[in-house]
Amino acid sequence: MSPRRPQRSVDNKRFTRGRPQPPALADICDDESIDLVFRALNNEVRRGILGVIYDWGPAGMHPSDIAARFDIPWQSVSRHLNVLIEGGLLERRDLVYGRVYTLRADMLEWTAAWLSEIAARGRALDRLAQRGVRVAPIRD
């Protein structure tokens, strides 16, 4: 009798085998997930990795191709890729011929929309301030 494969949990999360998994878009509303997104974007190399994968195209990019474009050790590239996955900005797919990394467009679009909403609120507050309206801060 062959060993049983692990079954997916009721909430349909992936079986991770200890690898970092991106947060689901529905779960991004908590502060910890937002912090992970901005932590991932807070590094020049990680932003460069996102740009390289974007330029490569939607098929995804092999990790050795990513590492070849940066003058840093492979271990550092691997660490940066894991931070981008934890932040939800990249997805790792294991294929027959190897592993590829692709952008998570849904998370990037969500991040852009969230920033646009914050900017719109800031512009609205600026317009009120120009009219001389004082806005009291919200207290918890």
In short:
The chain is mainly alpha-helical.
Describe the structure in your own words.
The termini are far apart. A hairpin with a 2-residue loop joins strand 1 and strand 2. This protein has a domain at 25-104: Winged helix-like DNA-binding domain superfamily/Winged helix DNA-binding domain (Arc Repressor Mutant, subunit A, Orthogonal Bundle). Helix 1 (31-41) packs antiparallel against helix 4. The chain is mainly α. Helices cover 49% and strands 9% of the residues. The chain contains five helices and two strands, in the order H-H-H-H-E-E-H.
Helix content: 40-55%
Arrangement of strands in the largest sheet = 1-2
What is the CATH superfamily of the domain at 25-104?
A: Winged helix-like DNA-binding domain superfamily/Winged helix DNA-binding domain
The CATH architecture category of the domain at 25-104 equals Orthogonal Bundle
Structural class: mainly alpha
- Shape descriptor reads elongated
Can you count the helices?
A: 5
CATH third-level topology of the domain at 25-104: Arc Repressor Mutant, subunit A
CATH class of the domain at 25-104: Mainly Alpha
* SSE run: HHHHEEH
Major sheet size, sense and barrel closure: 2 strands, antiparallel
Write the SSE topology.
Elements: H1 31-41, H2 44-56, H3 63-67, H4 74-86, E1 90-95, E2 98-103, H5 105-130
Helix pairs in contact: 1-4
Task: List the defining traits of the structure above.
140 residues, mainly alpha, Arc Repressor Mutant, subunit A, two-stranded antiparallel ribbon, 5 helices, disordered N terminus
